[in-house]
Amino acid sequence: MEEFVRQGIDVRILHEVTAVDLDNRLVTVQRVGEGTVVQEPFDHLLLATGNRPLVPDLPGIDASGVFGVGTLAEGERLSRFLETQHVRRAVVVGAGYVGLEMAEALHRRGLAVTLVGRSREVMSTLDPEMGTKVSEAVRRAGIELRLGEEMVGLETSGADEAHRVTAVVTTEGVIPADVVVLGLGVRPRSELGQAAGLKLGARGSIKVDSRMRTSAEGVWAAGDCAESFHLVSRRPVWASLATVANKTGRVAGANIAGHEQSFPGILGTAITKIEHTEIARTGLQARDLPSLGIDYAAVQIDSITRSRYYPGVAPMSVRLLGEKGTGRLLGGQIVGGEGSAKRIDTVVTALQAGMTLDQVVDLDLSYAPPFAPVWEPVLVAARELMKLL
Amino acid sequence: MEEFVRQGIDVRILHEVTAVDLDNRLVTVQRVGEGTVVQEPFDHLLLATGNRPLVPDLPGIDASGVFGVGTLAEGERLSRFLETQHVRRAVVVGAGYVGLEMAEALHRRGLAVTLVGRSREVMSTLDPEMGTKVSEAVRRAGIELRLGEEMVGLETSGADEAHRVTAVVTTEGVIPADVVVLGLGVRPRSELGQAAGLKLGARGSIKVDSRMRTSAEGVWAAGDCAESFHLVSRRPVWASLATVANKTGRVAGANIAGHEQSFPGILGTAITKIEHTEIARTGLQARDLPSLGIDYAAVQIDSITRSRYYPGVAPMSVRLLGEKGTGRLLGGQIVGGEGSAKRIDTVVTALQAGMTLDQVVDLDLSYAPPFAPVWEPVLVAARELMKLL
Fold this sequence. Notes:
Two copies of one chain form a homodimer. By secondary structure, chain A is of the alpha/beta class. Chain A is 23% helix and 28% strand.
């Protein structure tokens, strides 16, 4: 706050903008929890309304002991609950990044954790052939994994204030639970922009151009509420990622301030870890390709993170996808031990440069026994894939 | 050996080729330690004669207790010496990759180690502004570092068999030593090719084209004896690196077997570590640029390896060089804690793609708290450098 004040920025926390009047260049602002409403004029308006976690409308979803983790406050609320209540069994619903990280964190706190996912494998942003390696890592960590299963309701005990979750009901059965954490994904929070008449784009996000301009003059959007552009498919997409939010915010701010900056787009790069298994992905994956009309091949190689003889060496798998005919790299996925995840940045850079697989094969990537085998696994995968394109 | 036999390859170890007769397509082969000489005909000849460590012709250089570490056998000889002799003080001469790694290894064995280097900082393949960070890491590790100092001789005791090193004499003084390890760099072992009449190239290496053909029909060279091509300077260079040796050997073999493969060249990528400090470099460095007529700017930023709050976070510095006018990336150097070194592969890929700094800034590199701050330090450096080009 002090930093904003020092910079002469009028910050109003606990104020909600309830409407945007584009014709009269006014926003309606309501102090949270109070009736007072004021109207504020604007020359430029930036919408950075973020995302909203998906909370299915199911019986028992509002019971005590059911948590989302979309905000810091929600995280703190969950933490207090775990500290003050007698909690033994946790069920995490949703097997993406948030679900995995929450399952690991709860398991570390000593709870018996069940992770419930709808897909065939955890992490559906990976091809299932790589997802299965993450599913294995989840099970190795001591987390019970139930896949191909969907939550359809929650069982509760007590009523009113004492209304408390006791189990998650799925398409396959009933899982007892003292606490339930939802990690079912997020959607853009674009209602304010939509009500003002702004055009919406991919998955209901606010449509923007590469300078983060919306469809209305002088109105900008950035962060998780705004649309993105996929650099490999060359199509609009929506992504909710911290890096993209930071970058688009910066670009919008620069443009509003009269500079000329643009944000070319994204690859959907993401990394995470569960215990000692690192997970990374970027670009297009197999399920994206049929609808794009791209004829592709994929290879997956099992290699190691360091020289065979070097202490701490661990398995690492690399999967690459490439386009038949053109030889163009389309995407990559990596799952493995320490040192695996950040290797995706090589794939990111090659993708963004529009490299073909035979160019990737020639990359002078770094080698030393503590860090890589002499044939860097990303290059080995590229060489194998080249043969299929 | 068995694998070669299985593949029907006639392997002759302990045989030295002493001459090549290009006109008559014959090599002269002598069994090591024996007088017998035979002549073998060839259709194709591959020279893979490797490199030779530099051993200065100084008084005392052949005393007992003075070791090079160019071969596995030499390493084993040193190891046996340390196990069987009373050794307390080690002096390592040369502060490049080999010198640093040997100094660390000897220090770990409990010896008092002094590292002597000629340059202003260790690792002259880094710009001195980054080298100084490695020098600090060496000192922090408990190794005595003497820089700007050159070995001019060795003191010894005894005579003949008992002739044993007791000190290294430098331009600055006398350093007592029970064991001396030389890490003064290597040169291409190209004498055999030169004597046969092959053209030599950069630093006396055997001149080859991108298919690893020498100047003589049907004669090929690969590995540390062969010349390379620098992908940024677009000039012939010589590099002695395991990855390059592996790759050029493969390309030469494929071409000899009738396939058509080529090796485009190198960036001089290299990584190493000392204790917990990781070191990486690729592309051109400041000292290369004046003679190439390249007008450049450099930036160096101090950042961190992970999110500020994540356990194990460590400092990391990134230095990037770019060309004024064109905005082209020229090279990069990274020194920092765990997870620093392999980040150089992003710079490698950007360099090899011929990216400009404004393209690097837009890379959708990976982020998660265990692996990176939300603004990846390589991108921060690129953004700063862009302003100067």
